[in-house]
Amino acid sequence: MNWRQEVDTRKEAFLDDLHGLLRIPSVLDESKAGPNEPFGPDVRQALDYMLELGQRDGFTTKDVGGYAGHLEYGEGDELVGILCHLDVVPAGEGWTYGAFNPTVADGKIFARGSNDDKGPTLAAYYGLKIVKELGLPLSKRVRLIAGCDEESEWRCVREYFKHEEMPTYGFAPDADFPIINAEKGLYDGILKQVPIQRVPGAKHQLISFVSGERPNMVPDYATAVLKTDEVLEEKFEAYLEKYEADGTCVYDKGEYTFTMRGVAAHAMEPDNGVNAAYVLAGFLLPLPLDIQGERYIEFIRHVFADSRGISLGIEASDETGDLTVNGGVFRYNEDERTATLNIRYPYTAKFTERLQNLKEIALSFGFELSTRHHMPPHHVAEDHPLVKTLQAVYERQTGESANLMAIGGGTYARSLEAGVAFGALFPGAKDVAHQVDEYMEIEDLLRAAAIYAEAIYELAK
Predict the structure, then answer these.
(1) What is the C-alpha separation between 187 and 358, in angstroms, rounded?
(2) Cis ω on the peptide bond leading into residue 117 (within 30° of 0)?
């Protein structure tokens, strides 16, 4: 079977369907949540679009309350799962073509979600579509499950599996090739500053500090409003020059508004970005702030001083990688003083002890740490039939060794009892998930679709 030839005959249809999905700004918006659209109307629209593709192509489809949906093909007692997601992170600013205006240039398709995870989702869908259209005999059912809250709290898969059966095994096309059989533990926490009795006489009062939109992103923009009579323009310009930072400073009626630009990146590797909140806090740190503001800024600079938790004494590393720490969302004003903490920890790390240490450190700075959600590490054995089958398919199609890997990201694979991440990013390709001008090489999507088609057949035959 020439799987790639089957993909190429469907290339134009694939790209048309992908453009349609990428145009939908499927960002979580709970302020507009309603019946059967718990994550807002735009995410609902993306789910409807996917289910309509399945109905068009003759799949059995099901909508699970707007949390998730599935497309199914085949017969048998066992079930192969392909777990994808249709929600995307916020666009951010500075796109060349527009975040939801999918544009093909230089062999790439640019749009939010092209890489994470709409492009790979469509590649997997077309793999399943090819198997169906060829009428290949299967002994198992195959179900493409499309979730709608992967970029936030995974409420989609939790709700889905309350009502639907767990696949025998499966894969998530939401990471890298060859195969990821181990994923770090994921911890999301909220740090809340305890109120402090204000002491009069502070030279500068921190009115507000705002940065970031999602815990799993390195924030690329930060603003701070400072009430003061002192002239600070020269100090700020000197700071920008010293640290080669990009920011602005505006004075109006006794208040300065400072802005700082950073570089957005996925929280699984914070060093790929520049945390705008951390950089702006560095300017504010030596200023004589009011006690509440001073403690808040000191805490930011201490907790997020490095991406490996060394300053916190919680560092850890094994074959799955280093423990990483990211501060994604910062809110400081009269009513709220919080920061989010996103930690990805290796398989062998004793996280309970580290979490207790973190809580004690936070308290020493006047902060309370509470858990938003926590997912333990995930691992599938090297000799599992799922792993062996996918290795054989990948090596047959690429001629390259299918080495097993571990990642700091969290994919839907961990929601399966036996699941791995399988593509769609090939070795050597640049990972631009969650970044401005996110893109995917069209050739890589077509290669992935061919691999998925064969993998689905081999797993379900």
Answers:
(1) 12
(2) yes
Phi–psi pair at 320, nearest 5 degrees: -85, -5
Alpha helices by DSSP H, listed for 93-203, are 118-133, 155-163
Query: In CATH, what number is assigned to the domain containing residue 44?
Result: 3.40.630.10
Same domain for 360 and 452, yes or no, is: no
For residue 211, which of 278, 146, 151, 159 has the smallest C-alpha distance? 278
pLDDT tens for 412-435 read 999 998 999 999 999 999 999 989
Q: How far apart are CA 168 and CA 188, in angstroms?
A: 29
User: What is the arithmetic mean of pLDDT over 20-26?
Assistant: 98
Residues facing 204 on adjacent strands: 228, 289
Rounded to whole angstroms, the Cα distance separating 85 from 4 reads: 24
pTM above 0.70, yes or no: yes
Same domain (yes/no): 38, 89: yes
- CB 438, CB 112: distance < 8 Å: yes
**What's the rounded mean pLDDT across residues 313-317?**
94
Angle between helices 442-460 and 385-398 (to 10 degrees): 140
> 346 φ, ψ to 5°?
-65, 165
What's the pLDDT tens digit per position in 201-243? 778 999 999 999 999 999 999 999 999 999 999 999 999 999 9
Give the residue numbers annotated as catalytic, written as ranges: 87, 150
Alpha helices in 111-231 (DSSP H): 118-133, 155-163
Task: Give CA–CA dist 308/304, Å, rounded.
Answer: 9
If one counts every other C-beta atom within 10 angstroms of the C-beta of residue 50, the result is 27
Distance in angstroms between the alpha carbons of the first and the last residue of the chain? 14
Q: Which of 232, 234, 253 is nearest to 242 (CA)?
A: 234
Tell me, rounded to whole angstroms, the distance of Cα 199 from its chain centroid: 41
pLDDT at res. 222: 98
User: How does strand 367-375 pair with strand 204-211?
Assistant: unpaired
Q: Note whether 176 and 417 are within 8 A (CB).
A: no
Which pLDDT score, from 0 to 100, does residue 320 have?
A: 83
Is 63:140 a contact under the CB 8 Å cutoff?
A: no
- Both 32 and 147 in one domain: the answer is yes
Residue with tokens 């249709």: 86
Give the H or E element holding residue 206: strand 204-211
Cβ pair 124, 446 in contact under 8 A: no
Same domain, residue pair 263 and 308? yes
CB 407 within 8 A of CB 345: no
